[in-house]
Design goal:
Number of domains: 1
Strand content: under 5%
Distance between the termini: 17 Å
Helix content: 40-55%
Largest sheet: 2 strands, antiparallel
Order of helices and strands: HEEHHHHHH
Number of helices: 7
Strand order of the largest sheet: 1-2
Number of strands: 2
Length: 151
Amino acid sequence: MRFRTRAKTAYGVLSEVRRLILDEPLRYDQTVLLVRRDEGYSRPMGFPKCGTVGCRAGWVTELCARYPESVLDPWGFAMTILGLDEWQANELFESRAATGYPQTPGHARSGAAGISEFMTKYNKQLRETKIQTTLWRWYHLISSGGRRRIV
């Protein structure tokens, strides 16, 4: 199953991430970037139907990159797409940003609440940051060492 964002702003992308993790808590583990069942990973709690588990940065990457599996640095990609500085990225993506045992409803609720707090704190900035496909291509060109592959 492939996920694609319909959002036009960073605020919209974070709203989608929040909804994804609340709809299916097995999708969310703030301690891993992005893992897929088809890549041979195993998870103590198993995988959701979609076969993908990730943190906030991982889900931004999954939603926004054309080929998320080719993004070498999901944290950096998500930070760039959302228009965040280092401090903001650390606040949103840090592995201790959610409490509870990964892939449980409590962990998902904690993660979603943290996203909501972040969205409130940086409301204006997130609503003004447009998600642009040219930025996706630029970021991938940089992170792939100049290889010409469209994301």
